[in-house]
Design a protein that fits this description.
It contains 14 helices and 13 strands. It has two domains: about 140 residues, Rossmann fold; about 140 residues, Rossmann fold (3-Layer(aba) Sandwich), CATH 3.40.50. It is an alpha/beta fold. The termini are far apart. The longest helix has 22 residues. Helix 3 crosses helix 4.
Length: about 350
Amino acid sequence: MKKTLAIVLALTMVLALGVTAFADEDPYEVGICQYMPHPALDLATQGFKDALVDEFGEDGVTFDEGNAGGEDSAVDPIIQGFVAADVDLILANATAPLQMAAAATDTIPVLGTSVTDYATALGIEDWTGTVGGNVSGTSDLAPLDQQAEVLHEMFPDAETVGLLYCSGEPNSIYQVNVIKGYLESEEMGYKCEMFPFTDVNDLPAVTQSACDGSDVIYVPTDNHVADNTQTIANIVLPAGVPVVAGEENICAGCGVVTLSISYYDLGYITGQMAAEILKGEADISEMPVQFAPEVTKEYNADNCAALNIEPPEGYVAIGAEEEAEEGEEAEETEEEPEAESTEG
């Protein structure tokens, strides 16, 4: 009897030690630096967090989040805080956080998201699709040749295209230079003119110049444009000049059409990459930069109506898919049968 009791006690202690060891296992600590509050960047951050929680559970990962409010000077202290805390991984949401995180550490894994072109952002020549070292991530670039095709499909009779962008954003410069080549090709035949602005102070004047000198304006995925779409809308709509935007949220503010991605999906893919790194299943130095799996032709119904523009077939109104999904969920809730009575 004593021998049996001793065995039971021993097994109990082993199980207790195992449970304690499991309970005491530290969660992964992930630092998130987001450049500014903005719907697209917010969605990317949320998708990233959801992917990691889906993988490790709410108790398996903690997030230390910092938002720079669109100020470059506020990015570095956030990143340095992550480095000092020796977090397990850093998410750099947008170009400035990526640049500063890559410069701040060569040991902590850094994943970027909402970054258009990694070669431009990090000054990499002979780009092969992989950053190398401790950096990788996802790109928010919708194919620029297809964006040019959207503009041509919508405005085939236009002659001049104004390219409006912030001169301080390397990825914006990259985008307008590339799309300019497509728009000025023999196939499309547009004449393009650059309209760079330095900050919000000269944005209204530059936007007005773009309206005066253009039949159509194109704006890339540009953080400063994204943060000031109402300023642009207040100028382009009264002037009657349509804007083709590089992504959905800019289009929702000042554009008429866009070829856009899901920033939530982009963030979720980044989170899946992070999970592989944290579990030791992938070497970040060998992980190629990934892209959103789908692009969608979308239009801004209000701005199109204001400019008497009728999008062709194949374009989806911004917000229509979300409204449809919410409607389906509401119908399913209404159709749920009442629980059967258990009274006998």
